[in-house]
Hints:
The complex is a heterodimer. By secondary structure, chain A is an all-alpha fold. Chain A has one helix spanning 4-27. Chain A is 52% helix and 0% strand. Chain B contains 23 helices and 26 strands. In chain B, the strands form 5 sheets. Chain B has a 7-stranded mixed beta sheet, with helices on both faces. In chain B, helix 12 (361-390) packs antiparallel against helix 14. Chain A binds chain B through residues 1, 4-5, 8-9, 12, 15, 18-19, 22-23, 26-29, 31-33, 35-36, 39-41, 43, and chain B through 27-28, 47-48, 50-51, 54, 65-69, 111, 114-115, 118-119, 122-123, 126-127, 130, 134, 145, 147-148, 151-152, 155, 158-159, 162.
Amino acid sequence: xxxxxxxxxxxxxxxxxxxxxxxxxxxxxxxxxxxxxxxxxxxxxx
Amino acid sequence: xxxxxxxxxxxxxxxxxxxxxxxxxxxxxxxxxxxxxxxxxxxxxxxxxxxxxxxxxxxxxxxxxxxxxxxxxxxxxxxxxxxxxxxxxxxxxxxxxxxxxxxxxxxxxxxxxxxxxxxxxxxxxxxxxxxxxxxxxxxxxxxxxxxxxxxxxxxxxxxxxxxxxxxxxxxxxxxxxxxxxxxxxxxxxxxxxxxxxxxxxxxxxxxxxxxxxxxxxxxxxxxxxxxxxxxxxxxxxxxxxxxxxxxxxxxxxxxxxxxxxxxxxxxxxxxxxxxxxxxxxxxxxxxxxxxxxxxxxxxxxxxxxxxxxxxxxxxxxxxxxxxxxxxxxxxxxxxxxxxxxxxxxxxxxxxxxxxxxxxxxxxxxxxxxxxxxxxxxxxxxxxxxxxxxxxxxxxxxxxxxxxxxxxxxxxxxxxxxxxxxxxxxxxxxxxxxxxxxxxxxxxxxxxxxxxxxxxxxxxxxxxxxxxxxxxxxxxxxxxxxxxxxxxxxxxxxxxxxxxxxxxxxxxxxxxxxxxxxxxxxxxxxxxxxxxxxxxxxxxxxxxxxxxxxxxxxxxxxxxxxxxxxxxxxxxxxxxxxxxxxxxxxxxxxxxxxxxxxxxxxxxxxxxxxxxxxxxxxxxxxxxxxxxxxxxxxxxxxxxxxxxxxxxxxxxxxxxxxxxxxxxxxxxxxxxxxxxxxxxxxxxxxxxxxxxxxxxxxxxxxxxxxxxxxxxxxxxxxxxxxxxxxxxxxxxxxxxxxxxxxxxxxxxxxxxxxxxxxxxxxxxxxx
Lengths: 46, 766
């Protein structure tokens, strides 16, 4: 049981990291057009 | 062909403001001098073309987004080091047919708003799930370790701050605005409930005892944000056409200056173009202004303006419209007549914009009912809490009841029922080329049972031809035709189009419309010192008897040309039936409508048309006043009437009808006082409009019934305390989602099957 005192705050931290990553992805436009990428040719050039 | 295009004009800094945006500082560290440009790549059809486009741009441009479906490319470049013309030339050489799209500041703003709305949904989702998980132990296990329990409760509080406050911020902001303007808005009870639930829960976390409502609050916010996102998306789709139209504005024009020795062509910004100028439009370019085609015929793409996707051939002397594309292989020359805000393109944009901001009556009613409802809900919540306290149920229980009443009976679904359905219907119709100038008309259209058709220009094709010219008093048929053409030159009557191809140096003076003794009217004027009169047979100043051979010309209109002493010639103007007219008439009759044909033409002509189409009821030789009287008689009998006309010659009829539809021509767009504008110049849009209107009415009725029924059902449950707050939140939100989902079905309504082949999707971006 006492481990929960550590695990719950860690879990909370992970949630906030997830929120941060999601907000970054949205702000950089990754969810703007979900159809576009599927029609893109794979870019083989180095 | 592509070599003739001069791309270097786009390198000019003063023009750049018209199409390039400078992304200010935002994010990914590009230099501040970067310009963002949007191109239409009409030659891009497949993923391979997209790859080629990216290849051409790579190296000189950054942030390249190529969208095959929309045939667009968006990228940034640094004007100091890169010449845009070089990029355009490379794309052109690759066969991608680039075209610069005008800057759309609003699209940028919309995108930002969409991103934030999406982010709020995401945050609400994550927080709601986590809070629920943290709340579960206390529901499942009775004796949790006190310290752990306090940790779990504190964590819920921490997660609810972004989950309710940030994700639900628009709700609080709206409610605040509503309260400040002393109006009750949907968001007031919602914000109140959210605030009360969170405030009480926060106090209880600090006290260390009592039930928490964080799980309910976060879930409620999640439902609300999802509902709003869907609603906003359907509205955005309704304005998509508007954006497409705005992107069609030309940015530059090429003006031809007629010098003494040779003609010069200079490229100027669109603002510098003036009425009367002669503008040259290169192949593949957008026409900068409305005007008259000069010198030679041209092939134009008018798809975005009229929905007609086939190339249109226009003859010299005919009107051509800004925003259409020159599809021919040679430059065309036009004389500018209308510019900027007075072009048809601008007028359509304005009409669409207007239609989307108007609030129909039913919606105003729903809003008013909702306003009263909210006031009642606030009072009822207080009463329920007071009753519970009075019965001695304790403060906690009374608070839960008040919360449940506030949340469960919020009439969100009620206020969504009408606008979402109308937005979906409008966007569905706009996609096929029907402009709804008045949203209220959609509701009237669903209830009509009679249709009054005008003949000329409505059931018959607008492009009329001279079938026959018969000189009565000798003289050359060609010379007489030239006189008639000169008289008709300024006229807007459909008959005038039969003379559009006649070229004559004659000039008419003192032209005026004369109302004759009969139904038809005439035109009088003076040409080369001689007075002439041209008009309907029975209005002629000198009686004419038809030769026997004319008896067979049913379906045509016969007009007379006279001078001041005698009739000179009979002219037979052929009005071909529209190819789709018969199918449309059958479709309308299949939908249970009674059709009637009213026309100012002679009886034979009208009857021939009615027979060919299968319309049982027809009235010939109708003056505008007689048409109006017929309409009013029908309305007095309790019929609800749709009038279909060409929007100009039957304006009183259209204005008096319950619903009116017309196929407006060019400049007449905003003057046509019709509720529905069939842009495709095709009647086949009529059954579709009817279907959409009826479906919309059905959706609205379902939505209103559901929303009202739900609210009335759930209110007693919440007041008696049987409904827990979380259940109330779920029920209320699901009810809203159901209403939105039901309305969105309208967007996928198919075109009537028999007519399908004639519809061309408008939204396909070119």
